[in-house]
Amino acid sequence: NAGVTQTPKFRILKIGQSMTLQCAQDMNHNYMYWYRQDPGMGLKLIYYSVGAGITDKGEVPNGYNVSRSTTEDFPLRLELAAPSQTSVYFCASSSPNRANQETQYFGPGTRLLVL
Amino acid sequence: GNSVTQMEGPVTLSEEAFLTINCTYTATGYPSLFWYVQYPGEGLQLLLKATKADDKGSNKGFEATYRKETTSFHLEKGSVQVSDSAVYFCALVGRAGGTSYGKLTFGQGTILTVHP
Which residue from A minimizes the CA distance to B48? Predict the structure, then answer.
C-alpha cells in the first residue's frame, strides 16, 4: 500500500512552459485535493475532486487545471508557468468512509521553481 | 469564510520542556478541528483531531481540546523530544450547511525546533 504518491519531486520550469504534476493513490479514496504551500502561509486549496469525472475549484485555482478520469489519479496541469507559481505542491486524498471522511492523507510533495 | 490563526513561530525549546502552540479559529456552524505535522522533507500527516466541542484529541503525547467558547484548539505536550522538531499546522473542516467534502482550511504553520 503506497498511499499517496507524487511525481516529480522537484522541477525547474521557465516562464511560459507547461507541465503536469502527477498524483496517484491506492486507497480507493473518493476525495482528492491539490494544495500549494508557500513559506509562512500554510496550505491553500487549489482544486478538489469528489470522484471520477467531478472536479471543483478551491481557494486559488487561477493558472491551474485538473482532471479526474479514474479514482486513482488526479493530475494538476500548469499551462503557462509564472514565477508566482513557485511553491511546494501537495496532493491529498480522504476516505469514503463517513467516519474518517475528514482525515486527509498527503503525498510527499512536488517542489516547483519557475524562473 | 473560515479561517485559522496560529501563534507566530519559530518556537525553540530544550528537550523535556513543555510545549504549547496556540490555535484559534473562525467558522460558522460546528467545524472539525485538526493538528497536522510535517517532518523535514515529508508531506503532512494527521497528528490528532476533534470533531465536537469539549472533545480532546491525543496522539504521541500531544493533546488538544476543542473549546467552542473560546474558539480555540491549542496543542500541548508535557515533555518534548528532539524528534518532535517539525512544522505543526492547525486546520479545520467547516460544516456550515451542505457537504464540506472534507476541504481543509489551514493556519500558517508553526516551526518547532527542539534542542538536546
Answer: A103
